[in-house]
Amino acid sequence: MRGQILNSPRIKEIRQKRRKLLYRKMMIIFGLFIVLIVGLSFATKIKKINIQNIQVVGNSVIETGQIESVIREQIAGNYFHLFARSNSFLVSKKRIEESLLANLKRILSVEIKLTDLRTIKASVVEREGKYIWCDGLSEDTIAQKCYFTDDSGYIFDTAPYFSGSVYFKIYGGVGEGLSPIGSNILSEGEFGKIINFYNSIKTIIPANKPIFVLIKSDSTYEVVLEGSAGLVGPKIIFSKDNDIDKIAGNLSSALSSEPFASMFRAKYNDLLYIDLRFNDKVYYKFK
After folding, report:
1. Roughly how many angstroms between the first and final C-alpha of the chain, as a whole number?
2. Cα→Cα distances 267→210, 230, 254, Å
3. Among 126, 158, 134, 136, which Cα is nearest to 59's?
4. Average pLDDT over residues 8-22
5. Using the 8-state DSSP alphabet, how is residue 50 labeled?
6. pLDDT tens digits, residue range 94-145?
7. SS3 call for 155
């Protein structure tokens, strides 16, 4: 008897009406949702709240147009094909900052801010070219491919040809086949050792400054000094395993001790090398 009541035509009719009512409600809700999405989509594209102007400050080497181009690329198009990326309420400042750092290696840091609903401002800090890394020793110095590095040995931009020894140059260290820009010459610690020793040499031998260092595959470093009339002079050899302060002290002692001190002054152009790799011993050789 109970089964007959549950399956009676009246009950079935009530159930069908309820299903239809529920379906209509769902369609109305879905329709309202679509209208809302479409409305929001159009709203995000209103010019008054979309980025129209880009301000760039802090750059001196990087062209403003390059920075603007990266920013415009990041605010072009739509999220989910609906919402404008250029909308001032939706623009991703972090995404723009990351893109600028990834595409323009000379940028050390950047901050993106909205100055108003139509203007975005990029405050840029550029890396400073401290040294130059070149892709190999060559007699044709003008044809060499050289790049700027910062004080940590990070290669960030191509460098023009400089006559003389305007910058201290580094050869070797970057892995073979790698793109130099965006790479480090060595680990920051190892590069720091070379630069510390370079600075020590400038103090110990002020009249004959270092002009370049060759990083060899056997972890030996050769710092080449400036010779007479701008020519290449003798080299100072040391190893990555040496204590920089210790070998700098050894070099200073050797250059103040006889007979080497007098020989260094009198026969500098005939000096081939000073070798500091062996603990407290200093070896040297003249032509």
Report:
1. 122
2. 18, 16, 15
3. 126
4. 74
5. B
6. 999 999 999 999 999 999 999 999 999 999 999 999 999 988 765 545 557 8
7. strand
- Only one residue has tokens 């379906």, namely 23
Q: If you write DSSP's letter for every residue of 170-232 in order, what string do you get?
A: EES-SPTTS-STT-BSS-HHHHHHHHHHHHHHHHHSTTS-EEEEEE-TTSEEEEEEE-GGG-E
The alpha carbon of 103 is separated from its chain's Cα centroid by a whole number of angstroms, namely: 9
Q: Hunting for tokens 């594209």 — which residue is that?
A: 45
As given in the structure block, the two tokens for residue 284 are 């040297």
pLDDT for the residue 163: 65
Quickly count: other Cβ atoms within 10 Å of residue 139's Cβ. Answer: 6
Q: Which of 196, 170, 198 is nearest to 184 (CA)?
A: 170
Q: How far apart are CA 258 and CA 261, in angstroms?
A: 5
Report the predicted TM-score, pTM, of the whole model to 2 decimal places.
0.79
CB atoms near residue 171 (< 10 Å): 22
Comparing CA positions, the residue from 261, 159, 164, 145 lying closest to residue 211 is 164
Give the DSSP letter string of 61-94: SS-HHHHHHHHHHHHSSEETTTEETTBTTT--HH
Place of tokens 């026969």: 267
Tokens of 166: 């305007």
The answer to whether residues 280 and 250 touch, using CB atoms and an 8 Å cutoff, is: yes
Peptide bond before 259: cis, by omega within 30 degrees of 0?
A: yes
Report how far residue 162's alpha carbon sits from residue 132's, in angstroms, rounded to the nearest whole number.
10
The whole-angstrom separation of Cα 17 and Cα 30 is 20
Interaxial angle between packed helices 64-75 and 93-103, expressed in degrees from 0 to 180 and rounded to the nearest 10:
130
* Pick from 93, 89, 58: nearest CA to 74: 93
Q: What is the pLDDT of residue 104?
A: 95
Closest to 153 measured CA to CA, from 102, 110, 187, 113: 187
